[in-house]
Design goal:
By secondary structure, the chain is an alpha/beta fold. The protein has two domains: about 160 residues, Rossmann fold; about 200 residues, pyruvate-formate lyase- activating enzyme. It contains 14 helices and 15 strands. α3 links the parallel β3 and β4.
């Protein structure tokens, strides 16, 4: 069987999306590519975003390949499954233009949370719930009723799976990148000066905490580490292709038992790294090692400057704000860019936030403006507000978000006047 794995050329005009708009490695497709090949099938991976391809150009390649399955994600890279564009405008357009003759398969946060609505909106055949690394290849060889997270529609209606696919990270192996255009990818995620060639890798997946705002419950939920040697081999593969910076897409870098060994090994490689984490996972000794491992960008979720605010968000943080501040300052003395991220809560006074920001900025720590929370379907926040996600979940969340924050202003990295989700999904 032939599988076409396509990362579309993403567009975010009019969207509430607040993730990075540069191209990023489609790791979910890269892992699936290797599993499909291991299964004796024939995959092709086309990253239209990094290669700047139109749908028409991709279609010409697919017409020569004649795929049995066409797979398109509903979010740009695993890195942004937790904060995807709510609308399905882009995958809808690409399925419509590429889908002749192949079984159309959607993966991502939307089919994970609302598979029935995803099948309807995208007019696709299959929606995979959860992590698709190991399950996509099974479409070619197993009854779909036996595949975790597989939902589909046929002449008998819609068939929904109550399960979620969870990948065994120990079995992912090492990505060779032999079939990926590493050289076309220049972006160094969350680095704002200098030059070089960047890449994204994954060391661990999931998170042991359950913050109310975090969109990970229906995918990438349970914390798991990969084999250190397999990951180091990926680092070496990328370095041999000219990569000088790696951003770890882990939900929460620094949790697992093997992080220290990874960092000890990275100390001896001429490559810099960036990551997202919680500063309360680190102490001075660990931050020293992080600096020695050539970390140049560290993004830390603080969320609230009050104990009450962090408790409301279910952060389970056992450090005081004063201790968090000291660690951020200590980290900045060793790492060129340290950023503290805040979220709007009712427990944080604007004047106190401003004072805290000014104090940390004196030491070179960048502190974001508090961003509004989007109640992504499937998050604890969404469930608290609206209950389990249904076929109108994305519309409901989008209406709430735009209605709540239109007067309060959105984040400075978002569209100032986002469109209605219904209007976006009708745009091709």
């Amino acid at each position: 069987m032939k599988f076409a794995l396509v990362n579309p050329a993403w567009s975010f005009q009019g969207s509430t999306y607040f993730g990075c708009q540069e191209p990023h490695y489609p790791l979910e497709l890269l892992f699936a590519f290797d599993k499909i090949k291991e299964g004796g099938h024939d995959p092709i991976l086309i990253d239209a975003q990094v290669e700047k391809l139109t749908a028409a150009q991709v279609k010409r390649r697919l017409d020569e390949f004649h795929p049995n399955f066409l797979v398109i994600p509903t979010a740009p890279s695993y890195l942004f499954w937790r904060c995807p564009p709510p609308e399905l405008r882009v995958p809808r357009k690409w399925f419509a233009e590429l889908g002749d003759g192949a079984v159309k398969v959607a993966i991502g946060p939307h089919p994970s949370a609302t598979p029935s609505a995803t099948l309807r909106k995208l007019n696709c055949d299959v929606a995979m719930r959860g992590e698709p690394d190991e399950t996509l290849v099974q479409l070619a060889s197993r009854p779909w009723t036996e595949i975790d997270g597989c939902c589909w529609k046929d002449e008998n209606g819609v068939h929904l799976s109550p399960s979620l696919a969870v990948t065994d990270m120990r079995g992912l192996g090492t990505l060779s990148f032999d079939d990926y255009n590493v050289e076309a990818h220049q972006h160094r995620h969350h680095v704002f000066s200098g030059c070089g060639r960047g890449a994204e890798l994954e060391f661990a997946r999931g998170c042991p905490w359950n913050c109310t705002f975090c969109n990970k419950t229906l995918f990438r939920n349970k914390f798991r580490e990969r084999d250190v040697d397999a990951v180091l081999a990926e680092v070496d593969n990328l370095m041999a292709r000219g990569v000088s910076y790696i951003y770890w897409i882990d939900e929460i870098f620094g949790v697992g038992k093997n992080v220290r060994r990874l960092l000890e090994e990275l100390r001896h490689r001429p490559i810099s790294i960036g990551l997202q984490t919680r500063i309360d996972l680190w102490d001075e000794e660990a931050l020293d090692l992080l600096g020695q491992a050539h970390c140049i960008s560290m993004e830390c979720g603080i969320e609230s400057i009050t104990d009450e605010g962090r408790d409301e968000l279910n952060k389970n943080c056992r450090m005081s704000t004063e201790r968090l501040s000291r660690l951020l300052i200590y980290a900045k003395e060793r790492i060129p860019w340290v950023q503290a991220n805040l979220i709007l809560t009712d427990h944080d006074n604007r004047d106190e936030i401003c004072t805290w920001q000014k104090n940390l900025k004196k030491y070179g720590v960048w502190v974001s403006e508090p961003v509004p929370m989007f109640p992504y379907p499937g998050t604890p926040l969404y469930t608290q507000m609206f209950g389990p996600p249904d076929d109108q979940a994305w519309e409901r969340a989008h209406h709430y978000y735009t209605g709540m924050f239109r007067e309060k202003d959105y984040s400075d990295i978002q569209e100032p006047h986002p469109a209605r989700i219904e209007d976006l999904e009708c745009t091709c």
